[in-house]
């Protein structure tokens, strides 16, 4: 986790610029509404493109390009109506947090959880035995409301009165978690952005797109750079050939992946027949901005894991879970969060003493006063515990459960700050619930806390199953944007909180309008309910304490800490702890793009050094923009049609 230098920036003026103007807020609100409506068409009604799952969210990047293009036109015809760069970046940061709320990984994971217990009991699932453990405010119980949710309501009428309290409580929890994590990010900002000077690749990309100055005056701005248009054209051609193939399967195309493991047919090599290279221009383009040690670690560790699978199978050990990558990733995530907090301990101690009034520290330029950030994080976390307790999660379990939310958010934000890797699923979903079950066993939980605890865990499954915790990275990136464009940090923090509330409002409205119109059973977006385990436990199929999984979690944590120590002692050591956890969590998706980006970046630095690297940067930003523009924006808008041709080319951005 060695800090990487950031490119040269503009010399900051003494006074920070206003970015959260009235017109910026109105524009951000309007774009958020359009984004939620876009999510409705592309995810709920057709299921062709999950635009809110992307990093950055498709709509956020699309409207960033709209603002830049509008400014270009206004510069000639109405210059006084131009948006300032600060306004553009505040609107963009607003959209990154607001638009994700409408996606299936946030509201789509949360809303079906409670109401499913009341609908599917009618299908002889015997879920009524759990009804008494579901708080009355968690989901509507009126059977007409429930049935119409799944099957559609006459005239598409939404029973808002029945949903008012459940939606309000869900928004309350989102506000508590989002606010708590924002306070933590504010506390860590100076350490990461000023002391360690992390690279923030996605902020660098937004800086270039929004018209930020280049470090070398002779370099043209991004959209005047021919290299950008070359990269744009390459990614556009990739998508256009796949689109042409969707219309005519005889047309040659690359597709979304290349099957590498298919050639391994003999035992034990056949155990890795699932290995593929994901053909994802987005991962490849951002990979060029990722530090070399992280790129190397991702593909190298992934293949080490495949070798382990082959050796274990060859030894006759029949355990398909080996090498237990999810467990190792969970342990590594927690260990890295503690390591990051330990490294920042002196800075955090200063901030805490300032918050308590024990010493003076200037916080006038911070996104929040030290006192608000510290006590906001504390009281926000207490609020999360209280919400969990009201849902049925005992305090003892809640301390670990919600503590894991905070620790995961810290590590995820760090991964994005250093690597920029656009993958929401780098968070080890399920791990906090699985750790509780592995440690206590379901029988142990029942004996100590009763059925209410197990039902509470399942009701709150969206906390770890989706990617709401990924907003921590957007928050930290937004705080870093304030340095790149000298934006008022407190206005940025206010914009982020407004983004959550406005995004939640539009998400609730459009999702319920859509579901009561067509019925949850008929929407195309995949949705998740988690009652099958409860039924198994009620039938006596209990999960015992699993010491093997606990040991492997601990092993993942020990390996991650060892890598931190070694990397700090020997900066040239090639294995990076962040790359290690990325390979564990999502290596199957990342290893191919990371390998090709590593080869190209290494050659560029060997042949031309930092100067050539900088010159070619627009080429790879162009690859990202070309992929987003053709694959997500153009194809994503067209594919809202119900025509079956749009099902033949599905783009995965998460």
Shape: globular
Q: Structural class of the helix and strand makeup?
A: mainly alpha
Strand order of the largest sheet: 1-2
- Summarize the biggest pleated sheet: 2 strands, antiparallel
Strand content: under 5%
CA radius of gyration is 25 Å
How would you portray this structure in words?
This protein is mainly α and 654 residues long. Helix content is 64%, strand content 1%. It is built from 23 helices and two strands. Helix 2 packs across helix 23 (577-638), helix 6 crosses helix 13 (370-391) and helix 22 (547-569) packs across helix 23 (577-638). Mean pLDDT is 90; it is low at 2-13.
Summarize the entry for a quick read:
The protein is an all-alpha fold.
List the topology elements:
Elements (H helix, E strand, L loop, with lengths): L21 H24 L12 H20 L7 H14 L8 H13 L23 H9 L8 H36 L5 H9 L16 H22 L9 E3 L16 E3 L2 H7 L4 H23 L10 H19 L1 H11 L14 H22 L3 H25 L11 H10 L1 H8 L1 H9 L2 H4 L5 H14 L4 H30 L13 H7 L8 H23 L7 H62 L16
Antiparallel strand pairs: 1-2
Helix pairs in contact: 1-3, 1-20, 2-3, 2-23, 3-19, 3-20, 4-5, 5-20, 6-13, 6-14, 6-19, 6-20, 8-23, 9-23, 10-23, 11-14, 11-22, 11-23, 12-13, 13-14, 14-19, 16-17, 19-20, 22-23
List descriptors:
654 residues, two-stranded antiparallel sheet
């Amino acid at each position: 986790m060695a800090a990487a230098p950031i490119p040269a920036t503009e010399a900051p003026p003494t006074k920070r610029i206003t970015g959260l103007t009235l017109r910026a807020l109105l524009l951000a609100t309007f774009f958020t509404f359009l984004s939620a409506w876009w999510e409705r068409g592309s995810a709920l009604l057709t299921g062709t493109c999950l635009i809110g799952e992307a990093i950055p969210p498709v709509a956020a990047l699309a409207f960033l390009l709209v603002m830049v293009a509008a400014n270009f036109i206004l510069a000639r015809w109405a210059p006084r109506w131009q948006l300032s760069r600060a306004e553009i970046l505040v609107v963009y940061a607003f959209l990154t947090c607001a638009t994700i709320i409408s996606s299936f990984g946030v509201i789509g994971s949360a809303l079906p959880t409670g109401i499913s217990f009341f609908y599917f009991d009618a299908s002889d699932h015997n879920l009524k035995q759990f009804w008494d453990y579901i708080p009355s405010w968690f989901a509507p119980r009126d059977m007409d409301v429930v049935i119409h949710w799944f099957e559609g309501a006459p005239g598409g009428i939404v029973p808002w009165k029945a949903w008012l309290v459940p939606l309000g409580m869900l928004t309350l929890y989102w506000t508590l978690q989002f606010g708590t994590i924002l306070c933590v990010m504010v506390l860590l900002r100076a350490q990461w952005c000023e002391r360690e000077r992390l690279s923030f690749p996605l902020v660098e990309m937004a800086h270039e797109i929004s018209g930020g100055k280049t470090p070398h005056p002779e370099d043209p701005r991004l959209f005047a750079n021919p290299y950008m248009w070359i990269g744009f054209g390459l990614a556009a051609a990739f998508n256009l050939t796949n689109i042409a193939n969707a219309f005519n399967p005889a047309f040659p195309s690359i597709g979304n992946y290349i099957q590498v493991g298919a050639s391994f047919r003999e035992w034990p090599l056949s155990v890795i027949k699932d290995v593929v290279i994901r053909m994802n221009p987005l991962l490849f383009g951002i990979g060029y901005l990722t530090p070399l040690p992280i790129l190397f670690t991702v593909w190298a560790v992934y293949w080490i894991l495949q070798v382990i699978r082959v050796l274990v199978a060859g030894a006759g050990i029949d355990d398909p879970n080996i090498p237990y990558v999810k467990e190792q990733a969970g342990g590594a995530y927690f260990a890295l969060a503690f390591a990051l907090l330990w490294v920042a301990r002196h800075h955090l101690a200063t901030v805490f003493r300032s918050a308590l009034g024990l010493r003076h520290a200037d916080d006038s330029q911070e996104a929040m006063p030290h006192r608000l950030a510290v006590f906001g994080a504390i009281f926000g976390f207490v609020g999360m515990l209280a919400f969990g307790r009201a849902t049925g999660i005992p305090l003892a379990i809640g301390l670990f459960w919600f503590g894991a939310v905070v620790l995961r958010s810290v590590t995820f934000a760090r991964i994005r700050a250093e690597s920029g890797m656009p993958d929401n699923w780098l968070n080890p979903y399920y791990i906090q619930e699985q750790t509780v079950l592995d440690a206590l066993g379901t029988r142990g939980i029942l004996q100590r806390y009763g059925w209410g605890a197990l039902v509470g865990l399942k009701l709150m499954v969206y906390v770890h199953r989706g990617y709401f915790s990924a907003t921590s990275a957007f928050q930290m990136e937004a705080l870093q944007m304030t340095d790149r464009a000298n934006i008022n940090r407190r206005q940025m923090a206010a914009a982020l909180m407004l983004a959550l509330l406005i995004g939640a409002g539009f998400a609730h409205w459009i999702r319920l309008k859509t579901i009561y119109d067509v019925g949850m059973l008929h929407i195309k977006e995949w949705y998740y309910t988690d009652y099958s385990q409860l039924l198994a436990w009620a039938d006596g199929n209990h999960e015992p304490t699993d010491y093997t999984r606990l040991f492997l979690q601990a092993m993942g944590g020990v390996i991650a800490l060892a890598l931190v120590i070694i990397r700090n002692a020997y900066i040239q050591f090639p294995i990076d702890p962040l790359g290690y956890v990325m390979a564990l969590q999502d290596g199957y998706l990342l290893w191919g793009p990371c390998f090709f980006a590593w080869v190209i970046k290494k050659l560029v630095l060997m042949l031309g050094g930092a100067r050539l690297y900088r010159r070619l940067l627009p080429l790879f930003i162009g690859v990202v923009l070309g992929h987003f523009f053709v694959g997500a924006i153009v194809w994503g808008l067209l594919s809202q049609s119900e025509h079956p041709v749009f099902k033949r080319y599905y783009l995965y951005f998460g």
